[in-house]
TrEMBL record:
CDD domains: HP_PGM_like (cd07067). InterPro entries: His_Pase_superF_clade-1, His_PPase_superfam. Gene3D superfamilies: Phosphoglycerate mutase-like (3.40.50.1240). It comes from the Bacteria. Coiled coil: none annotated. Pfam families: His_Phos_1. This is Phosphoglycerate mutase.
Length: 187
């Protein structure tokens, strides 16, 4: 089984590091863009996919231009929608509510936000369309959802992965669509 190589890259830093940035469109910091571009240079792929949020889209535009690769913007690769918590510093949120969310992101989603299974469903739909080697510029939550969908890991297991800004997670997707194998993680 050879499979399809898929690289998932978390966007670089923004000017709002340390906040719950869900669907808020925080622009990328130039250092974050440079990190993503540098990390993508050795990747061999002709297709770049990205979240529509500028912190992922802008570095993806630079990478696609440098690689002369097709760029596809897809909002399904967005971060989890944190609803009323969007842009909040986790330290400022009610401890009980945040603890409940981390323990059960489906039963206790952020107020007005998205539950974990909804994030997994939209990422799963996006993954279902990948039929050739690709690089996806996205967000930590979407990367964890992809791990959950592809590798059968639950939310507690995927949150054990440290995915700092610019992290690159490489997977081999099985050709029969039955799952994937993690082949690399550069943080």
């Amino acid at each position: 089984m050879t499979g399809i190589t898929l690289h998932l890259m978390r966007h670089g830093i923004t000017g709002m590091t340390g906040r719950l940035l869900g669907h808020h469109d925080a622009p990328p910091h130039p250092d974050g863009v440079a990190l993503c571009v540098d990390r993508a240079r050795p990747i061999d792929c002709g297709r770049i996919l990205t979240s529509d949020l500028s912190r992922a889209r802008i570095p993806a535009e630079f990478i696609a231009a440098e690689k002369q690769a097709a760029l596809h913007v897809d909002p399904r690769w967005r971060e989890l929608d944190f609803g009323a918590w969007d842009c909040a510093d986790a330290a400022d949120l009610p401890t009980g509510a945040l603890t409940d969310f981390w323990a059960d992101p489906d039963g206790s989603p952020p107020p007005g936000g998205e539950c974990w299974s909804s994030l997994c469903a939209r990422v799963s739909a996006a993954l279902g369309e990948i039929d050739a080697p690709a690089l996806v510029l996205t967000h930590a939550g979407a990367m964890r959802a992809a791990l959950s969908v592809l590798c059968g890991l639950d939310h507690r297991q995927v949150w054990t992965f440290d995915l700092p800004h610019g992290a690159l997670l490489s997977l081999r997707l099985w050709p029969d669509g039955s799952g994937a194998q993690i082949t690399g993680l550069a943080a």
